[in-house]
Amino acid sequence: MKKILPVLLIGAGLLIPAIAFAYSRREDYLKVYVLTNFGKRSVIYDLLPYIISQSEVNGIPPELVLAIIHQESRGNPYAVSSTGAIGLMQIQPETAKNVCGFTKSQLFDPKKNIYCGIKYLKYLKERSDYLKDIIAGYYAGEKAIYYRRRTGKYPSYGKPPVFKYVFDVYNKYKQIRGAVV
């Protein structure tokens, strides 16, 4: 046992800096993406470390969160949709109440909006591990996940239709992920 322990410690000593380096590179690439697409003055730039940490705590790729923010609000924390969705991640007030216990006015707080959006993505991930299902569920509710399971395709309702939204967000996610990997 004494001979194995130093080897494991040396191995762990080499692994930890490698993980930290990979993490900082990923964060740097995400920062470049945010600078390019939202700008240095954007709230997204300031909240990127928060987005990354909350994503990792909840098992959600931060690239997916950024893809949804880009699609939903283009980084505008005060965006309100025609259906009443609010903020960066365009959360419906009813969803915010059920998933996070937040009021409608709290959704204008960018940090709370991101927190709630990520919690909702985690909720959807518990219903399906398939990334495209999670995206469809985010846009149209978990009923879109069950519809795809029954029919093999995403619903055509919504503006844009669910399948188009899934296509757009998934491609944005892959674009961001490709820049990071």
Give the percentage of residues in beta strands. under 5%
Low-confidence stretches: 1-22
Per DSSP, the total helix count is 8
CATH C-level class: Mainly Alpha
What descriptors fit this protein?
181 residues; single chain; mainly alpha; Lysozyme; globular
Structure description:
By secondary structure, the chain is mainly alpha-helical. It has a single domain (4-180), classed as Orthogonal Bundle (Lysozyme). Helix content is 69%, strand content 0%. The chain has eight helices and no strands. The chain has helices spanning 4-37, 43-58, 62-73, 93-100, 110-125, 131-140, 143-151, 162-180. The longest helix is centred in the N-terminal third of the chain and has 34 residues, at 4-37. The protein is globular and about 45 Å long. It starts with a helix and ends with a helix. 36% of the residues are buried. Residues 1-22 have low confidence and may be disordered.
List the helices and strands and how they pair.
Blueprint: H1 4-37, H2 43-58, H3 62-73, H4 93-100, H5 110-125, H6 131-140, H7 143-151, H8 162-180
